[in-house]
Amino acid sequence: MSLDNAIASSQSKGLAWRKSDTTWTLGLFGTAIGAGVLFFPIRAGFGGLIPILIMLVLAYPIAFLCHRALARLCLSGSNPSGNITETVEEHFGKTGGVVITFLYFFAILPLLWIYGVTITNTFMAFWENQLQLPALNRGFVSLFLLLLMAFVIFFGKNLMVKVMSYLVWPFIASLVLISLSLIPYWNASAINQVDLSAITLGGSDGILVTVWLGISIMVFSFNFSPIVSSFVVSKREEYEGDYGREFTEKKCSQIISRASMLMVAVVMFFAFSCLFTLSPANMAEAKAQNIPVLSYLANHFSSMAGSKSTFATTLEYAASLIALVAIFKSFFGHYLGTLEGLNGLILKFKYHGDKTKVSEGKLNSVSMLFIMGSTWLVAYVNPNILDLIEAMGAPIIASLLCLLPMYAIHKVPALKPFKGKAENIFVTAIGLLTILNIVYKLF
């Protein structure tokens, strides 16, 4: 066998699909499917059928190209075991590492605020609509729920991580089952409301603005960026020594592509099933009520007149419970990242990175007090969740997921092979459009 054939053979073996690749595909997919998915149908269906069809076309490119760009940045470091912070420090110095730590912390903290508002509203809606019990004080409910989660986190973190990892798949299965079970309740209201003669591109209600705002919720909902760094490190350690960085990049792209396809298929089917069961007017009402779509579905089936099917009766109670589980799962997962980020910032600025100057228990307690206190305050104020996502959560995620890798492509020699490619324009545009939501919300 010639040398070229031997190299080609070894490379093809390296790119063959492995069990570990399936594990990571499902891991990326499971990371993205969380509480954010429960708000995507509301924003996507808010403008009616045509905007959601455009979002369907954009969904896979946004999920795949943006996460692939971040993975390529993680791959560009010289240390195969180095995470994204080390890689950025290598390319841009310690200042770059501090900036990334800041961005990671402030990308995750607003998500906790969002989940704090969501879990309070979901619980109160279930209490009042399904259980038919008197309304409770909002401040008390949010404080009780957050103290309950703080208690679980403080005394059973390891158990919590294990339980949350097991809850991912029942939640995804529940979304698919609900999507399928809603089919008998589909109606043509979303189609009948399409009036081609009345469609406008501009204006606050135009297709372009609706899709623009929808991009933010897609960036938020189709997001597994927190796990990309760990994923890339794992694949580099598995492949790079034997097959080189180029083939490791191809393998990572292959896994990200399949995870993105799974994610888009599940989330978009769920969104369409909700839209065809409800209507754009119902989605607007759900946004005004500031509750996830599952809670609105529960209330919708609760208010149905006449005899109800077994599914309608089950969904009336199960939808809110599934939503609560999803929010708990997402809150716990993001809390750990927020705690790590805040601890890192405190160590960098107060203790100059010296962990010996402060006990881990004291550091965790101070960070928990700030995180839970700020989350309770936001949950009590009750800002609109979709507005909070579009103005804070999604723009910071986009700066990490889209703009940082695009900036690195123009500055880092190791990323030079990816410079000048057409998809870079798309990823940059998605990042800028998402960040510009802040300007739109202000004016």
Automatic annotation (TrEMBL):
Q: Which residues cross the membrane?
A: 23-42, 48-71, 92-115, 135-155, 167-186, 206-234, 255-278, 317-342, 363-382, 388-410, 422-440
| GO CC aspect terms | plasma membrane
Keywords recorded for this protein, A-Z: Amino-acid transport, Cell inner membrane, Cell membrane, Membrane, Symport, Transmembrane, Transmembrane helix, Transport
Query: What InterPro entries does UniProt report for this protein, alphabetically?
Result: Amino_acid_transport_2, Hydroxy_aa_transpt, Thr/Ser_transpt_TdcC
The protein's superkingdom reads Bacteria
Locations listed in the record: Cell inner membrane
Q: How does it sit in the membrane?
A: Multi-pass membrane protein
What is the catalytic activity of this protein? Answer: L-threonine(in) + H(+)(in) = L-threonine(out) + H(+)(out); L-serine(in) + H(+)(in) = L-serine(out) + H(+)(out)
Q: What is its main location?
A: membrane
Cite the GO molecular-function annotations of the record.
L-serine transmembrane transporter activity; symporter activity; threonine efflux transmembrane transporter activity
HAMAP family, per database record: Thr_Ser_transp_TdcC
Q: Which NCBIfam families match?
A: PRK13629.1 (NF010152), stp (TIGR00814)
Q: What does this protein do?
A: Involved in the import of threonine and serine into the cell, with the concomitant import of a proton (symport system).
Q: Which family does it belong to?
A: Belongs to the amino acid/polyamine transporter 2 family. SdaC/TdcC subfamily.
Q: What is this protein called?
A: Threonine/serine transporter TdcC
